């Protein structure tokens, strides 16, 4: 499908290594910037949700009710969480 009005993404990067995941996040943001496609992105990764989203919906488990909606008022472009800590582990 070439230009969908809505993309539904359920943990699309969950099985990827950190480098590929970061790259795919950037690709997804580029699609959003160019096409303004609405995306519903399911993730358990809070950094990923904040990096990609303009609002985060928190859900309770079973029966899947919405606990809250948090607006993310950070400007784009945002710093990718995978690139945020390049020296991680250097002190260990």
From TrEMBL:
Keyword Protein transport in record: no
The keyword Transport is assigned to this record: yes
Output the superkingdom of the source species: Bacteria
Which terms are listed as keywords in the entry?
Transport
Q: Which SUPFAM superfamilies match?
A: P-loop containing nucleoside triphosphate hydrolases (SSF52540)
Q: Which PANTHER family match?
A: ALIPHATIC SULFONATES IMPORT ATP-BINDING PROTEIN SSUB (PTHR42788:SF13), TAURINE IMPORT ATP-BINDING PROTEIN-RELATED (PTHR42788)
Q: What is this protein called?
A: ABC transporter domain-containing protein
């Amino acid at each position: 499908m070439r230009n969908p009005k809505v993309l539904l993404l359920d943990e699309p990067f969950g099985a990827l290594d950190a480098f590929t995941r970061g790259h795919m996040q950037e690709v997804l943001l580029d699609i959003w910037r160019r096409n303004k496609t609405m995306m519903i992105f399911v993730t358990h990764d809070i950094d990923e949700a904040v990096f990609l989203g303009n609002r985060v919906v928190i859900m309770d488990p079973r029966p899947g009710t919405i606990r809250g909606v948090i607006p993310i008022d950070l400007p784009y472009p945002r710093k990718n969480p995978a690139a945020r800590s390049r020296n991680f582990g250097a002190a260990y």
